[in-house]
Design a protein that fits this description.
339 residues; alpha/beta; two-stranded parallel sheet; 11% strand
């Protein structure tokens, strides 16, 4: 491995770095769901242009067949696609066995392998991270939500990227209303263009109309968005609920109940038609389509993995008041959005 120092940059600068070269390792660290997702997608888009066609998500809270993974990495060749690994950290308490496997993964790196690590906080004391920290083929991307003094300029830049402009009062209103919810900011800006397609300059009057449409989100709508596989909408509602002060364990209980019910239906539909099961369990008509689509979209392994992950979330949350439950509720959304 080349000895040097990893490159540190903000998520806004990532696009310029990717124009120069694709690094072997990217570490996305931060608390902002939108910045992490956009950074990951930028990297994958650039990798696709360089023929990295195979992508694999690895969730470290799951049981992982490391030997299979190492074997597949060693056997990439001219007749197989270049591969990307997206490694999600479910908790900051990385046990020694995982640390050792990550070290081995790094040691097996080659030009046909791209690794993207997604974390909430910097794991400075872990050996695998120290290895990457001394490697100039590593890029660390800060994905933390901009602080209040920088948020105003972030909004202006995002609006500019969408080819629209906000006056100062409109920008201040958006910053105040959405606080640190970047997903809400982006969706409101995009909806301005949908509602006013022929307009490019917007005032507080226009913003208030769009903002009112976003003011009525409940935990039930969050559950419906998760079951529908609407990752962006579920993430937006989750962030909104967090700002409203809702107890996160309530959300966990609600989605847990729905997933357990889906798992039951999944098992019963082997022998019983789904319409008979809906009748048996008194599922009202409007909800049947949502559940039917969820059953078609999610396989039994996804349902089992999500239940296992929810058990881990609850256990960690009960034992550690500083546990990043909101971050992991978003990871749950990703797990249940996979098709």
């Amino acid at each position: 491995m080349t000895i040097g120092r990893m490159i540190n940059l903000t998520s806004e600068k990532l696009v310029y770095q990717l124009q120069n070269f694709l690094a072997s390792f990217y570490i996305l660290i931060g608390n902002d769901i939108l910045l992490i997702e956009e950074s990951k997608n930028l990297i994958l888009k650039q990798s696709h242009s360089l023929k990295f066609y195979k992508h694999e998500n690895i969730f470290l809270y799951e049981s992982i067949d490391w030997n299979r993974l190492f074997h597949s990495i060693n056997n990439l060749n001219l007749f197989t696609n270049r591969q990307s690994l997206i490694i999600h950290f479910g908790t900051q308490n990385i046990i020694s066995s995982i640390d050792e496997n990550l070290k081995k993964l790094i040691s097996l790196s080659h030009n046909d392998l791209l690794c993207i690590f997604i974390l909430h906080q910097k794991p400075s004391n872990h050996t695998w991270f120290k290895l990457l920290n001394s490697n100039n083929t590593t890029v660390l991307v800060n994905c933390n939500t901009p602080k209040k003094e920088k948020l105003y300029h972030w909004i202006l830049n995002r609006a500019k990227n969408l080819n629209l402009s906000l006056d100062e009062n409109a920008c201040q209103l958006l910053s105040y209303y959405c606080e640190n919810n970047l997903i809400a900011i982006v969706q409101i800006l995009e909806n301005l263009l949908l509602i006013y397609p022929d307009k490019k300059q917007f005032s507080t009057k226009h913003l208030k109309i769009v903002i009112n449409d976003y003011s009525q989100f409940t935990h039930f709508k969050w559950v419906d968005a998760v079951l529908s596989g609407e990752e962006n909408r579920a993430s937006y509602i989750l962030h909104h609920l967090k700002l409203s002060g809702i107890e996160p364990i309530l959300l966990l209980r609600l989605i847990q109940k729905e997933i357990l019910f889906l798992l039951k239906l999944k098992r019963y539909t082997i022998n019983i038609p789904i319409h008979k099961l809906f009748y048996k369990y008194n599922i009202w008509y409007d909800r049947r389509l949502l559940l039917k689509n969820a059953l078609d979209r999610l396989d039994i392994q996804q349902l089992k993995k999500s239940i296992q992950f929810m058990e881990i979330i609850e256990l960690q949350y009960k034992n550690n008041e500083n546990y990043f439950i909101w971050f992991h509720l978003h990871t749950l959304i990703i797990l249940l959005s996979k098709r």
